[in-house]
Amino acid sequence: MDFVNENLPRFLGGAWLTVQLAAMSCLMGLALALPLALARLSARRAARAVSTAYVFFFRGTPLLAQLFLIYYGSGQFRHALDAVGLWTFFRDPWFCALLTLTLNTAAYTSEILRGAIQAIPKGEVEAARALGLTGWMQLRLIVLPRAIQIGWPAYANEVVYQIQATSLVSIITVMDITGVARAVGARDFTFFEAFGLAALLYLCLVYAFLFGARRIEARLNAHLPQARRPRAAGAGGLTR
Amino acid sequence: MPDLQGYGWLLIDGLMLTLGVAVASMIGALGVGLLAAMGKLFAPRAGRFLIEAYTTFVRGVPELVLLLLIYYGVPTLIQNVAAGFGLDWSLSINPFAAGIGTLTLIYAAFACEVFRAAYLALPPGQREAAYALGLNRGITFRKVELPQMMRHALPGLGNVWMVLVKATALISIIQLPELMRNADIAARSTRQPFTFFFAACLLYLGITLVSMWGQARLERWAARGTLEARS
């Protein structure tokens, strides 16, 4: 208890950083995932190839390798980055952490989005076309709302994974929950308490998010009978 | 091919250890996961509650935190408890064992969910028919239920394997000389971090490709004897 009283403010500071990183990377990743998913479904071969290669690389390699590739790897191009004025960004661990997390989640999210778009009954899109909606309006009024509804449980699981994935940024010295736990544990040799408290904080964040996600899900599916609702967020296995 | 300055073999050694850790953890996760799934389905209430608590905890905590908790936390806890009894113990866990133990613990929870869903996907008539033929529970499970479960479970287990392989990279944090760790060593001594981390990425992509191919073959094998709907 002494341990908690003494260190809670630092851990809460770390938790705020974790929440920031997770929220910002998820939002930016979502923005990047939409063009990626559309490119994957596009009729143009080049667009499909670029999107497929991007997703294959980011889903096929460990997040830690991507993080090191961007944070340490950028040092190899220091002069070039300096010349275009980007070195100040790549020198900053927080920026590299956010960039890596964003690029990574964009790949997984685009696959969820693609699956959801492909799961929309064909008739709905044909009906939109029959009504004379333009391509953009079909996307905005029919395809995206339906894709969000279908893909939401899978996306909620992706956010849960992303909250946990942010813990890796502690390895490049960012002081998120895990970073604080490592520092506090090493200072007082209280590793068990420090990592135990960190684990509890992550549990709180994850299950608080899932609670909210299920309420959103209930809203999205309010018009459907129970039997036709998709599987609940957080139920069952691994989505990645 | 980039110039690896003689560090290529270090990466290959790392790759071998990565595969070793991944295979050992996967075997552990399959065994523990199957037991946990059976527990979740058939154990008495207290047992079910314990297994539920375990999977809930593991799925809500980052792999890295669990790894650090086991590798650094558990020895210090034991030392502190021992010190309470006036014992002066110095204890440390081998990184290889800590890594395999942690990955087994985590991915058993995910495998458990896959097995449970696969069991629930079996039509009850299969079991009833086996009992009607006079097979006992053990033989029914081994000869009738398990082979059919595998067909439902393989896609999920393939997914667990892919995520597990990538999670082995975390063990580099506790200095186990697997692929990531060796790439880091090479990157530091040659001052070419991008080259070596990119080479490591390519090796991970190689594992992913081979795994995808293997998974497709296994799924075809597990689905032998079932009729395929053709469209």
TrEMBL record, chain A:
**Keyword Transport: yes or no?**
yes
| Record-given protein name | ABC transporter permease
Whether Iron counts among this entry's keywords is no
- Keywords per UniProt: Cell inner membrane, Cell membrane, Membrane, Transmembrane, Transmembrane helix, Transport
Q: What Pfam families has UniProt attached to this entry?
A: BPD_transp_1
The annotated topology with respect to the bilayer is:
Multi-pass membrane protein
Q: Name one GO molecular function term.
A: transmembrane transporter activity
| Alphabetized Gene3D superfamilies for the sequence | MetI-like
Q: What is its main location?
A: membrane
Q: Which GO terms describe its cellular component?
A: ATP-binding cassette (ABC) transporter complex
The Swiss-Prot or TrEMBL record describes its family as follows:
Belongs to the binding-protein-dependent transport system permease family. HisMQ subfamily.
TM region positions: 15-39, 51-72, 194-213
Compartments, as annotated in UniProt: Cell inner membrane; Cell membrane
GO annotations under biological process?
A: amino acid transport
Q: Where's the ABC transmembrane type-1 domain?
A: 15-213
From TrEMBL, chain B:
Q: Which GO terms describe its molecular function?
A: transmembrane transporter activity
Q: Which residues cross the membrane?
A: 6-37, 49-72, 92-110, 152-174, 194-214
Protein location? Cell inner membrane; Cell membrane
Which keywords does this chain's UniProt record carry? Answer: Cell inner membrane, Cell membrane, Membrane, Transmembrane, Transmembrane helix, Transport
Q: Belongs to which family?
A: Belongs to the binding-protein-dependent transport system permease family. HisMQ subfamily.
Q: Which residues form the ABC transmembrane type-1 domain?
A: 15-215
Instruction: Output a single Gene Ontology CC term carried by this record.
Output: ATP-binding cassette (ABC) transporter complex
Claim: Nucleus is one of the keywords in the record: no
The record gives the membrane topology as: Multi-pass membrane protein
Give the superkingdom in one word: Bacteria
Main subcellular localisation:
membrane
Question: What Pfam families does this protein's entry cite?
Answer: BPD_transp_1
What is the official name of this protein in its record? ABC transporter permease
Q: Which organism is it from?
A: Roseivivax isoporae LMG 25204
The keyword Transcription regulation belongs to this UniProt entry's keyword annotation: no
Cross-referenced CDD domains? TM_PBP2
